[in-house]
Automatic annotation (TrEMBL):
It comes from the Bacteria. Pfam families: Pyr_redox_3. Signal peptide: none annotated. One of its GO terms (molecular function) is oxidoreductase activity. This is YpdA family putative bacillithiol disulfide reductase. The gene is ypdA. The keyword Flavoprotein applies.
Length: 325
């Protein structure tokens, strides 16, 4: 067999892509995982001090224990765990190699990347949703002061920042930057705070109640300028002095990539990709989805802990096909 030909090619080296690799390896298939960024690229982009919702055991893949000194692991612990899994299991992973095309080649698929061309009988798409931010679509959003990603609070010391959003990311950004000396204002479309970690929400509510963090509910930005922003509130439009805008408005999957591959998406706003729930197979024979990508715009449906089973379903289905032959 040619060295660039595999039984299974997996797109994405996030936790679920790695889980698929572990299952393929255990089943005795030749496989390759290709990732356009670093290992577990989405987790790497998480804020420096982020703590997971889940306990360590629910982030485990392949039955390999995840030891954490905290009740809920943090970003550095997760990165360490997935590196150790990759090394200890000798997973076949190519990093910083972007998939650009998927085409039919008889009984196989040709997968073209930024570095090579591969043939595979089966393809698993396990990409995340952290690369495409949901835009505000307002004047001034392209200014350098506007950030859709947040990493470390120290940068914002003594800065006037606006945080857009009502959920976990916005809550973490608001609290962390406030505690590092930023002047924080939250702009929230809804009438109340959203889905926030239970140990974080009371803290934020108290900071808002005491006025340490200013919050405008049922409000939205209408324009961003170099030194200020305009906000539409229920009582009218106001202007706030501002140094940085942190738009924690969420992210979406790479729908264009799926469409280029030929995978069917629902015609509505949710853009759910088609797949069989028992086999994870898409409308393309022997092309499968795994992980958060399965939810389309509903990025809150699938997480590491409840989509690990996708890897098991896919490999079980592939094994069933082989037995039928």
């Amino acid at each position: 067999m040619n060295q660039n030909t595999f039984d299974i090619l997996i797109i994405g080296a996030g936790p679920i892509g790695l889980a698929c690799g572990l299952e393929a390896r255990q089943a005795g298939y030749s496989y390759l995982i290709v990732e356009k960024g670093c290992l577990v690229n989405s987790l790497y982009k998480y804020p420096l001090n982020m703590t997971f919702f889940s306990t360590a055991d629910r982030l485990e893949i392949g039955g390999i224990p995840f030891a954490s000194i905290q009740p809920k692991p943090n970003r550095p612990e997760a990165l360490e765990y997935y590196r150790r899994v990759t090394d200890s299991q000798k997973l076949n992973v190519n990093l910083f190699e972007e998939v650009v095309a998927l085409t039919s080649a008889g009984e196989r698929y040709q997968v073209t990347t930024s570095k090579a061309t591969y043939l595979a009988r089966h393809v698993i798409i396990a990409i995340g949703f952290y690369d495409v931010p949901n835009l505000l679509n307002i004047p001034g959003e392209d200014l350098p002061k506007v950030r859709h990603y947040y990493f470390d609070p120290h940068f914002y010391y003594k800065q006037k920042i606006v945080v857009i959003g009502a959920n976990n990311s916005a809550a973490d950004v608001a609290l962390e930057t406030f505690r590092k000396g930023a002047e924080v204002t939250m702009i929230i479309r809804e009438a109340e705070l959203g889905r926030i970690k239970y140990w974080t929400k009371p803290d934020l509510e108290n900071r808002i109640a005491e006025g340490s963090i200013k919050a405008y509910f049922q409000s939205h930005l209408t324009q961003i300028r170099e030194r200020e922003v305009e906000v539409q509130t229920p009582t009218g439009k106001i202007t706030l002095a501002n140094d940085y805008v942190l738009a924690m408005t969420g992210y979406q999957p790479q729908f264009g990539l799926l469409q280029n591959f030929g995978i069917t998406l629902s015609p509505d706003f949710k853009r759910h990709p088609y797949y069989h729930p028992e086999t994870m197979e898409t409308n393309l024979r022997n092309v499968f989805l795994a992980g958060v990508i399965c939810g389309g715009m509903d990025t809150h449906i699938w997480f590491i802990e409840n989509s690990r089973e996708h890897a098991v379903k896919i490999i079980r289905h592939i094994q069933g096909q082989k037995q039928e032959v």
